Amino acid sequence: MRTAHKALAVLVAAIWGVNFVVIEVGLEHFPPLLFSALRFLAAAVPAVFFVGRPKVAWKWVVAVGLVLGVAKFGLLFVGMDQGMSAGLSSLVLQIQAVFTAVFAAIVLGERPGGARLAGMTIALAGIAVAAVDEGASGPLAAFALVIAAAACWGASNVLTRKASPPDALNFMVWVSVVPVLPLLALSLLIEGPDTDLAALRALDLTGVGTVFYVAWITTIVGFGAWGFLLRRYPASSVAPFSLLVPVFGMSSAALLLDEHVTALRWCAAALLVGGVALTSLGRGGGSRTDPPPSPRATGRAANLLAHDRT
Q1: Which of 27, 77, 216, 295 is deepest in the core (most CB within 10 A)?
Q2: What's the mean pLDDT in 122-147?
């Protein structure tokens, strides 16, 4: 990769890492389900009017929108609102790579190779260490919600692979349309109209800024830059940069939010990032006579990698 493009990949990882700090700030201004709904509304409008019609069947748009948008982001925002720290959330969410591999094996029949199995084991050990650390310093229920969010992310990745969208940006914009009304309905039901109205009435520039950062900078700018890189380089060259996301997430949380990073958490980070690297980049299983991947399969892999980090 050219030096400028490597710098762009690092910048995207930084944008996605800092995103967790921005979410933490946003949760001081909005209840979590309303905040998630506003994030998707801002990501979808006005972009939906410029990307054209969906290029896959509506069932895939709706399915990914519900699993990724409503379940994954709803659980993540609620988990962080309930006390899960920004830095640890950025780390724990990376276990989605293990869930993706497991669900792909069950649903798609993709057999994980030895390297991926080893990576999954190491990553799970990292989660266990993080759970021990969180049990000593934070709420385990919030930790469990973020783990559940990672599982939903893994499920949405498999759905995206099944959908195989030819235009990843078009797909993500339409996926962003789906969660808005369900999240608003859940917010009114669970958080209450009085809470939502109070948050909207107290809206200030910081609140608006958090919504537009998570919607436009994280999704549109980050996603667009990541797709730009995937169109020019092999996915195996681009994907490793995503492992910097929890590094930036934990570092920015420590610098901007004064989050304390314990020795156990650094140990968990080393195990989880190393395990995810093996899980994501290790060769899958299969016989020696398997044919080489087709251009369509390569395109699916690129779309999945791009979708993974939004």
Answers
A1: 77
A2: 81
Residue range 274-296, pLDDT digits in tens: 887 777 666 544 433 344 444 44
Is residue 113 helix, strand or coil? coil
3 state SS of 310: coil
**Residues whose CB is less than 8 angstroms from the CB of residue 18 and which lie 6 or more positions away in sequence, other chains included:** 248, 249, 252
Q: Between vectors from CA 117 to CA 114 and to CA 118, what angle results, nearest 5°?
A: 85
Long-range CB pairs of 180-188, under 8 A, 24+ apart, other chains included: 180/37, 180/40, 180/41, 180/44, 182/66, 182/69, 182/70, 183/33, 183/34, 183/36, 183/37, 183/40, 183/69, 183/70, 183/74, 184/34, 184/37, 186/33, 186/70, 186/74, 187/31, 187/33, 187/34, 187/37
| pLDDT, tens digit, 9 for 90 and up, residues 245-271 | 888 888 899 899 988 877 887 888 888
At 64, list the tokens.
Answer: 């990914």
Residue 236 is predicted with a pLDDT of 60
Report the alpha-carbon distance of residue 101 to residue 116 in Å, rounded: 8
Q: What is the pTM of this model?
A: 0.82
Residue 136 tokens, joined: 């000593």
